[in-house]
Amino acid sequence: MRNCSSRSLELLTLLQAGRKWSAEELSSRLEVAERTVRRDIARLRSLGYDIRSAPGPGGAYRLVPSVRIPPLLLTAEEVSALVAGLLILETGAQDAAVVSARSKLEQLLPSTLRRRAVATALATEVVAPSSDTVDWTLLGDVADAVENGNHLRFSYTDRHGRVSTRRVEPFRHVLRGGVWYLVCYDRDRSNWRMFRFDRIHDAASCGVPFGYTSPEFPSTSIQEWLATDFGRLDSDKRR
């Protein structure tokens, strides 16, 4: 079951859509009882969110934009850069996380910058978007693992449909040709590898062996590593 904080955040996301929601609708979307919805709304109100409700058993809730939420301190150029960057990450399938992030960004901006954000979105068309929806949970897990020095274990399906279990030390996640990859050190194969995000399943943190020493990445950059056939061409030159 989701904790109170994550459920409240999901409730706030629904209310920020700009429409009215009945307690029954919110209960169904959040998969909790209506009394839990009312408690969560009371909690959001205590935090300063102006949530209005119509009287009666079928009364609907709506979030009123509040001046008490401070606007983001961004320039017009920074807003254009953020919106364009989010549009590049959106996929043809409409990536829900990216669409939601852009919507929240627009709502937090003062009116003049909100107009710039909307204008940038309307004027921008990405001809070659990412080919697959990104697993943002996995991307976040990889980022946390890199930051904290943790290792990951996951099932991987290769292009021939063969499934294997991998234990790796994550190094970077890379967007290349519209596809996200994990660059990592494969502990069991003692080599650096690159795995497609959309073929990784059941990723979980796993222990770091006692006395383990992180290997040094074999190239000065990911770009050089890829350009030299994962370092193999560069290695041949040195022989």
From TrEMBL:
It comes from the Bacteria. PROSITE patterns: HTH_DEOR_1 (PS00894), HTH_DEOR_2 (PS51000), WYL (PS52050). The keyword NAD does not apply. SUPFAM superfamilies: Winged helix' DNA-binding domain. The keyword DNA-binding applies. Transmembrane segments: none annotated. InterPro entries: CBASS_pafABC_assoc_protein, DeoR_HTH, HTH_11, Tscrpt_reg_HTH_DeoR_CS, WH-like_DNA-bd_sf, WH_DNA-bd_sf, WYL_dom. Its EC number is 6.3.4.15. Pfam families: HTH_11 (PF08279), WYL (PF13280). One of its GO terms (molecular function) is DNA binding. Gene3D superfamilies: Winged helix-like DNA-binding domain superfamily/Winged helix DNA-binding domain. Keywords: DNA-binding, Ligase, Transcription, Transcription regulation. Residues 4-59 form the HTH deoR-type domain. PANTHER family: PROTEIN PAFB, PTHR34580. This is Bifunctional ligase/repressor BirA. The lineage of its organism: Bacteria, Bacillati, Actinomycetota, Actinomycetes, Mycobacteriales.
